[in-house]
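>> Question from a student workshop board

For tomorrow's exercise we were told to take the sequence and the ligand below, predict the bound structure, and bring the output to class. My setup keeps failing. Could a helper post the expected result so I can at least see what it should look like? The ligand is 2-phosphoglycolic acid.
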Amino acid sequence: MTAPGRRPLLAANWKMNPLSAADAVALARGVLPAARRHGERVDVALFPPFPWLQAVGAELEGTRVGLGAQDCFWERSGAFTGEVSAAMLAGWCGWVIVGHSERRTHFGETDEDVARKAAAALAAGLRVVVCVGEREDQFEAGQTEAVVDRQLTAALGPPAVEDAGGLVVAYEPVWAIGTGRNADPPHADATMRVVRRGLDAALGADAAAQVRVLYGGSVNAANVRSYVELASCDGCLVGGASLKAEEFSNMIGAVV
Ligand code: PGA
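>> Workshop helper replied:
Here is what the output should look like for this input. Compare the format with yours to find the bug.
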């Protein structure tokens, strides 16, 4: 369970869903009652696709529910067709995810790219969820700790301690994402402890204590408690189960 001073966070990564603004707004609306009911004890943030940020943001106005994008580019503006900068996002939302394994796998993002995105997003005043996690072959080869440590160290770059409050790290084993094969809590626990040690080393204990560490990968209403009750875990990053308002609402209730 989250240490005193850190509030648990449930983050909803909608990925490339839903297909219409109306459905996105309806999904956000469906989550609001549970988020309101438990808002004193758990932070909730929704990450819709770029085109729905404005409509979902309007729905969330006046609530404590956070809004974020799923990616950003590090340059502020210029000839980068198709990209959206962290500076642009800052006008529309308060959060962004960087380094999700789907970006690394399908779009070739490197640790260096992730570091530049994280730095640009923090500089733009966004809160940043940095994703790390090993592939299945790396898991099988017992390389989890080394992979996660490398990704984390690279993503933090030369860390600015004053930015630590805006930082969240999500440990998401690639083989657990969207597969229904959620990681055993002891594996998640051991790896989140690796993340916490890396944060301590990079930021110093005081700043690191402000950073939340999440687990992600096939989290649902039935298993969310087995993660959030771990001392190493400050919440979860949820994909598929966050697309069902009722299930995600139940998860919010299960965290508190
Ligand atoms: P999943 O996705 O919950 O559908 O496994 C998690 C994520 O990719 O963030």
